[in-house]
Automatic annotation (TrEMBL):
Principal location class: membrane
Pfam families, A to Z: EMP70
Record's bilayer topology term: Multi-pass membrane protein
Organism superkingdom: Eukaryota
Keywords attached to this entry: Membrane, Signal, Transmembrane, Transmembrane helix
Gene Ontology terms describing biological process: protein localization to membrane
PANTHER family, per database record: TRANSMEMBRANE 9 SUPERFAMILY MEMBER 2 (PTHR10766:SF111), TRANSMEMBRANE 9 SUPERFAMILY PROTEIN (PTHR10766)
Compartment(s) where it occurs, according to its Swiss-Prot or TrEMBL record: Membrane
Coiled-coil zones: none
Entry's family note: Belongs to the nonaspanin (TM9SF) (TC 9.A.2) family.
Organism: Adineta steineri
Gene Ontology, cellular component aspect: cytoplasm; membrane
Protein name: Transmembrane 9 superfamily member
Length: 120
């Protein structure tokens, strides 16, 4: 019954923060690695502590709905052409970020998302 209530929000907003790596001391903005972004949504208001610690919270293109099975959803498509110097630069930057194990920081409902995994 609660799902049928029009006041109950079913959309889950996901925000992104900076990317960092245990293998590098440099944090980067989410947009630095040419990930999919959305520009038509305003960024959430950051408090003074977030600004002082270098957090730059931005809206993300990732969308979730409660009680909706969605195994796969295309967010955007990026093309990298060998004839386009800027796109090649962005591809090299992305590949270097993967080699250095840069990780995204997601925020859902004002709480950081945590991923636990085992190294084998």
């Amino acid at each position: 019954k609660a799902v049928e209530d029009s006041k109950c929000k079913t959309k889950v907003e996901v925000f992104v923060n900076r990317l960092d790596s245990v293998e590098s001391v440099l944090p980067y903005e989410y947009s630095y690695f040419d990930f999919c972004t959305i520009n038509d949504e305003p960024s959430p208001v950051e408090n003074l502590g977030q600004v002082l610690f270098g957090e730059r919270i931005r809206p993300s293109p990732y969308k979730f709905d409660f009680l909706k099975n969605d195994d796969c959803h295309l967010v955007c498509t990026k093309r990298f052409s060998s004839s386009d110097a800027l796109r090649q630069k962005m591809l090299k930057r992305l590949m270097k970020g993967m080699v250095l194990n840069y990780q995204q920081h997601w925020i859902i409902d004002n709480m950081p998302v945590t991923l636990c995994y085992r190294n084998t």
